[in-house]
Structures are given as C-alpha cells and as structure tokens.
Fold these 4 entries.
Entry 1:
Amino acid sequence: QTIEYKGENDSSYTTTVPTKPGNYTVKVSVAQSATYSKASATANFTIYKATPNVTAPTANSGLVYTSEAQALVTAGATTGGQLQYSLDGTTYNITIPTAINAGTYTVYYKVEADNNYTGIEADTLEIIISKATPTYNIPTDLSVLKNVKLVTIALPQGFTWNNPNESVGEDITNKTFKASYTPTDTNNYLVVSNIDIPVIITTTWDVADPEVEDVKAKINGVDVIDANIKLKVEVKAEMNNEESKDTSILDRDEVKEHLSSTDRVAIIYDVKLLRKTVINGVETVVEIQPSEIKEGVTIEIEMKLPQDLIGKKFRILHIHNDGTVKEVSYSENTEGTNITVLTDKLSEFAFVINESNPNKTNVGLIILLIIACILVLLIIALLLIFLLSGKWIINNGKPSKAMKIGRKDDKIKLLCMNFKIIYKSPNEIFDSKVDALNSLSSNND
C-alpha cells in the first residue's frame, strides 16, 4: 500500500508527512494482487497551531531615579510566537521598555502568533521608579547673635527652617536647628526634612561704625538687623555739609560719563553688608554681597532723602565696585521723604540733581509776568477814568464815551473808547448820555 498527503492548496500528492498547521487530505492506495483488485481511499484532517509555553516577564523592583534610562522589566521567554512589549497598550515591539523620570509605569506584554503557535492576549505589570534623595551641603559657618529668630538667618538655596520663628536662645554656645531641603527638581528628587543645621551663637557685634539710621535694608522682606548679617553705611558726600564732602568720586572717568556740566552730586551712600563668622573660635567680620547669602537674592534698600532733595527731580547712579556705573530706578513713599531701590549688588549710590532743573525759578519769566500785570492794571485804570470822568459825544451817529485830553484852537481834543483821537466843538460835548441822545434827536428833527 501507498500513503500520500496533499495540502488544501496543493495540486498533487506526496509521501512526505505534513507537520505544519493546516488542512490536509490523506490518500491510501492498494495495488492489484492475485487475491484483490486495486483500491484507494481518502480522508481529510487538520493540524492545529500549538499553544506556546510562556515564561512571563517580571517587574524590576527597587528602581530609583538616576537621570538615565532604566529597564522596567526583565525579559520573559516563549517556546513559540514572539513576546512583545508596550507602554501604551497599542504599539508593541520586542524591545524591553525603559524610562528615565520617577513615576509609576504600566508595561503591557503579549505573545504574537506565528505560523505554528497561537498568540496569547496581553497582560500587564506595574513598575515604580522612586524619587532619589538629593545631594546637598549642610552650611557650617552660620553665626548669629543671641535671642534672634531663625528667620533672620539666611540659608543656602533650597534650605528652609522648619520653625522660622524659633529663637536661637541666649546661651552662648553651638546649637543645631531643624531645616528642610527642597531640590530644584521635585519631580525626581525627594524633599529632605529634619536636617540638623549647626549654628554658632555669639554675644554682640564689634563693628567700629554703627549702621546709619537713614538707610535700611531687607532681604526677602526681613530687616537686616541683629543677625549674622549687618548693614553698614558711610555717607561720603552730603549737600550743605562741607565736612562730609568727598568729591573724589567725580574724578572717576566712568562717573564723568554719566554727569553733565550742570549735574551736582547731592549725597553719596556707600552701602555694605557685613557678615560675622566664627572660625576656629575667632570672630571675624567680612564684607559680602547679597549673592553670598543666597544665589539670585535681591536686597531692598530704603534711603532717606536729604531735605534739599524732597520734591525735586533727581537721578541715582549705582557705582559698582568693579567700576561700572548704572542709573537705577527707584520708588518713593507716599510722603516723598524716602526712596526704595532693589538691587543684587551693594556699593556706592550717588544722588544726582541737575542745576538746570525746571524746578528752579525763571527770573525772565517772572519779569514778563510783572510787565503784563502792569499793562492790565493800566488798561483797567483807563477804563475807570472813562467811566467816571469821561464826556459824551456823537460819533458816527451814535452816543459814545470820550475823555478830554487837550485843546487845539477852538476845538476840544478827545480820546475815544477805541483809543482814537478826535476834535469836537464845545457845543458837541455833553455831560451825560441823555443830553447826547437829546441833541442827536433834535438834529434829526
């Protein structure tokens, strides 16, 4: 006998036994013999796809943000088909999914069918990338006066006191106070709480010159006073105070570029910030800039105006320590006695007033005004004379007021209301308007 096979799309039989999934026909043929005649028979059969054995992928645990891509799962395996992955449940491929930022991720996986194996529907895994703990440097050089509040102690960027209104106390010693650190990237880094910050508590300031009361400073809205940072101001020049004048500033080329021949420097404040630190048990006072307190910090300087500047226009030149000069804007209080400047650097502030300021008295204009007033008074006086002592005449057929100013031969010289001079006979001049009207009426008759 002969056994042959044919696939549903084949045109002929073959003795090769089929192994791939599909629909087939088998034919058995028997040749003729002395006993039997030849015969054949067929039957249809199907080979189905096999179900693969799958080892599912596993979620990678303990992942922490590193700023680099991390594999979210450990690859699975399958005996047939293709194991594929997706982060959105729509787009699949064989690449192990990765992520960078901290967060919770869902990984979809499934077996894609092939010619011999069926597929397996998608399943999911949940993976977490935790926020990392940021690195930071604890400040170690904080020194303050006793009995001040923590809010007056500036911390490096990112640090905040847990209890800013807490007093450091009056004990002269070293203490620690709790603070928190907030990183710039809070999406991927944790906020660290309850960090111990060492603070050195001292007694009093030992600075030769006290701060000037006419100048005050605030950092982040807090007065710079009685803390590890103190304001010191020197008045280098002040109008109407010859002893305090220091005109050397006017000799600097960079300053001359910003001054005209009519400019006058009214007052100069040299504003400084001093920080008191304790190094190896030795108290030291150094000059600092606001940026050394906290990067990017802005300091608010309030200055009292000299009496001669109140109500006048002036400019403020900020003369930096590096030699650059910049005109700065300012705001005045409602009384106009104080101005406020916002800056990130401290040095000299020069108040400049222009002597040709329009606020000055214009003598020529005053003289013209006086002359105009005199002319107006003269005109008024002439009108009063006309009204009180003038005579009446007939001028152009109408009664008109006129004033005698002279005589020419037998004529009377008169000045009319329109300032024209005319001549009339004595019988043409009347004491009242009624007489003039009567004369006009009789002439008409």
Entry 2:
Amino acid sequence: MSRLFCNECINKQIEIDRLRKENESLRNENYKLKKRLKEGYFGSSTPSSKKPVKETATLDKAKKGGGAKKGHKGHGRKGFDVKEADEVVDVKGPSTCHKCGRPLQNVGTKFRSVIDIQPVIVKKIAYRLFEKRCGHCKKTITTPAPKVSPKCLYTNRALAYLAEEYYKKNSIDEPKSAKPLSYPP
C-alpha cells in the first residue's frame, strides 16, 4: 500500500536532506581545519619545532621558552683549530655602536673558521673577529666575517665555484656518451 505525502511534508523533507548534507560538509571542513591547525602548515611533514600547538606543552613550558641553556657548548658545525689555518685575517669592525652611535671599546676576539677556494687552491682561513662593547648601552658587537654567510663553513666564492663546477659537469647541453648506463646486478 503506497502512502501519499502532502507537498508541505515533501518540501520539509527536502530541506532536512539539504541541511544534513550541509551539516556533514561543515563537519568535514571543521575536522580538516582542526587537523591542519594541530599538525602545522605542512601537514605531517611539519617539524615539531614549527608546530603551532604541541600536545605535550604545558603553560609553564610555553612561558619558559626553548633552546639550550646559556653557556651550553652545542653540537653544531665543527670548524678547525686556528693552528691549522693557512692564513689568519684580522677583521677590525666598526668603531661606533650601530644602535646609539657612541664609541666601542675592545673586549676580546673570537675565531671563525672558514674554508675558501682560490680557484683550484683550497685555503683554510681563520678570521679573528674583534668583539667590541658600547660603554653606554652595554651592547657587545662581534664583527661578521667578510664574504661568508652566517654559520657557513665555506665562503660565498667557494660555494659559487662548487656550484658552477657541478653544473658545468651536469649540464643538459653537453653531449652525453653514447654508451647506456649499466647498473650492477
């Protein structure tokens, strides 16, 4: 036996179905946004240090800040000893504070180990970077090593030379050998 529905009931059922679909769509969108917020900008590829909200972070830990304690030696890039350097270059630096313009006083030196390439000659250079302190604002300034990116072992010239040599050898325009590549069994 078939039932007959009035137009009003049919219209209400159509509206209910539409709202259910919209509700489901909004739930999916909400889930995806929450997941992206939790995982970070690059999904599961986001490193834990870059995640905006960490599951294990308490309010105390968030206020404390991260990183190593002051004076910690660290495990960064290993340079070389000054005794191994082919050349030691003194880098004097500015004589006035860039922050307040007052004269700086010498407070010591730091060594920065850098590897530079004079075309085809590798030369180890230890820059003696002079540290100066402003007597007024107590800001300590270390002169940066010339022609070297921060925390980089190789000079800009060495990196450019290596990149140029690499691309010369691997250029698409160079004719390749007619012999096909063979792989070991």
Entry 3:
Amino acid sequence: MKQYHILIIFFILYIFTSCTRKENDDLWPLTAIAFASQQTVTETTTSTETDTVTNTNTSSESMTDTATDTATSTVLSISFSSSSLSVTVGAATTNTPTANDSITSCSISPSLPTGLSISSTSCAISGTPNVPQSSTSYSITPSNPSGSGSTVSVSITSICPTGGFSANGYCWFAGSAGESCNTACTNQSLHCEPVQVNDYTGRNGSTSNCQTVLDGLSLGTGAVANSGTPTDAIGCAYTTVPFAARIIANTNSTSCFGTSTNYQRACPCMAIAGP
C-alpha cells in the first residue's frame, strides 16, 4: 500500500512537471533570443572612409594660341606705266616699272631686240634700239628671296625716227641729191648697213624691193628699172637727170660712200655700225 502511495506521488510530480514545461515552452524562444543578443558582439566597424579626392585640376590652359599668322605673304608684282611701250631706233630709252617689293632677278621672254636689255634688280627696260620692230609681246617675271612674282605682259614697238621708213628690219632714209648713204644715215645719228644696200635693194636684191622702199620714202613714182649705170649709184635711187627715173643699180659696188650728182639714194640705217 505504501508503494502505491509513492507511485501516486511520482505520477503527480510528473504531471506537474509536464505542465510547467509546457507553459515555459512558449517563453523559450524569447529567452533564447535575449540570451543570444547578450552574446552578440556588436562589432559594427563603421568604416566610413569617404575618400573624396575631388581633383579639381581646372587647368584652364586655354591655349588661346591665337597664332593668327597674319604674315600675309604679298606676291611680288610689277607694273609699267603702259602695257604698250614704243621706243625709237637710235634713241636711248628707259622704262622702269613700279614694284611692291624688292627685286633680285628678272626674266623676260622672248629676248629683247638688239640694243635693249632688262635690269635684274628693277626689271627696267633700257638701252638704244638698234633696228625697227613691229609690236612684239614680252612676258616679264620678277623674283626675290620669297620666290617668283606674278608675270606681266608688255608689248614693245621699235619705230624709226621721223622721216624714216621701216623695211626688212631696217630704217630707210632718203639722201639728198648727190649725197652718199653714209652721210644720209649719219644725219640721223645712225649708221649705213652695206649688206642691205646690196642684198635687198642692190645688185642682189629685186626691183620690187626697191619700189617698196622708194614708195615708202616718197621718192618718185612709177616702175623701177634695172640699170648698170652710173657705177657709183649703188643700191636703189631716184634721179632727175637726164630724166625722172627710179633705178636699182646692177653694179659690183658695195660701198655706203658712193655719190652721184642728182641721185637720191634710199639708204638702210641702224643704230650701230654694220659690218
């Protein structure tokens, strides 16, 4: 009987214990959390290293390299007073152009006629024209250390002095009666050209050449006769004795010094002495 009592006591204790545990089970999670929170090492390493490297390298290198190279290179140029120059055989002449810069050399094409030359430092055309020339165009180009300049065109006409007639590249003049061609040309400050006396209006020339020259000099009228006399009347001439006639002398004389009374010779002249 006593054993039953003990069993009953144990049974009651068991029931009591079970109920108590059941009530505490609802509180267990909170207790565990509270316990765990106490064990949590709050290791909040707030490493707020705001490495704000604001590289404000406002390098205002406004390389306003306004290298406005205002070295406006001006092209060398020249200008003559006229694009058409007229010069006279036997008369000294100088035609200097204006230039916008210095000149160290000057080229010209084609070559100037005998007696004229061009300056390498000014492009001036100067000299004494030797023979007549019809209008001819020349291209002139100045230069300096900066380079070649602009090319300019100039036409040059070489005319005979007053009273002269241009034919076959020479200035022809009429001598007075009985006057030699040497004297006729000297009177014009020129020189007689004996080759022309023979080859154009002399024994090796033609009556048509003689007529052209006599017409140009207004020496007589009419046709030209081929004559062998007088022997000193070289070249082409007009005579009134014994009658008015135009003749081309067919003689062997080649001199510019022949004279004959009453004969007016057509004389070829140039600025420098002929051969």
Entry 4:
Amino acid sequence: MCFQSGQRMFNGHKSSLSIKIMDTRLKIHYSFYYGVLLLAGITFFFYSCTKGPGEGGTSTIKGKIYIQDYNGAGQLQAEYYAPEERVYLIFGDDDFYGLDTRTSYDGTYEFKYLKKGSYTVFAYSDCDTCASSVTPASMQVEISENHATVELEDIILIK
C-alpha cells in the first residue's frame, strides 16, 4: 500500500486521525478561497452599481441652436435656427464629449436615454480672435430624476 507523508498505519489501516487532519486542512483551504471569491464579488457589485451621468437612462435633453450671421464689417446679416449644426454632450466632469448629434432642419437637437447627473451641452461658434477660429458656446444642465425631459434655452452661435 502507498501512503502519503503524515499518514500512519495502525493494525494495517490508515489512521483516522491523519485523515481528519487532512480533511480539516482541505476545509480551511477551500473556506479561504470561498471567502476571497465572496469578497471580490461584493467589491465588484458595489463598484459596478455606481451610476453617474451617461447613456443607459430614461431622460432627455433637448434644445435649439440659433445662428447670428455677421459680415466682415461686424454687421448682423441674418438670424435663423441652424440646420445640420453639430452639438456635443459631455457627461459630468469628463474632459471629452460622450455624444454628439446634428440639429434638425429647424435647429432642434435631442440627446435621449440619459441617466441622472450633470451634463454640458455645447456647439462651436466662430471666433475671429481665437487661435483655432472657433470657441465653444455651452450650457450646464442637471438631470435630477428619471423619465425627465430637460429643455434648454437656445444656444446662440456667431457665424
């Protein structure tokens, strides 16, 4: 017969004491791993349930983009709601926009399926004195409840 180290022979049989010790070691070993897995699962659960601004909700932000068109002499030539103007949405304190859309024929835009939280809506206005020749015109908005529709004032762009 082959015996592992730590096993003893008593009257031709394995010692029940050594079997119990090995059994206890296995239980402690498995209990430790189950505890680690349980702790990891609980940690993942709490971190994955953190909800901030972004997609996946039931709320909407909408508004219109209004253009004031000036000539080279600085005189206002036309005013209208902007078709096909790009509008951007920043989630919370992010450094980069999370969504973008284009306005409809009547200057309206809409960001749907948003969670509760803080957002920044912006579009680019022309800027003759800026190095990039554009500057953002933005509005801050807070969605405080589910199924909300937040309608913003017109964002005015200079062209």
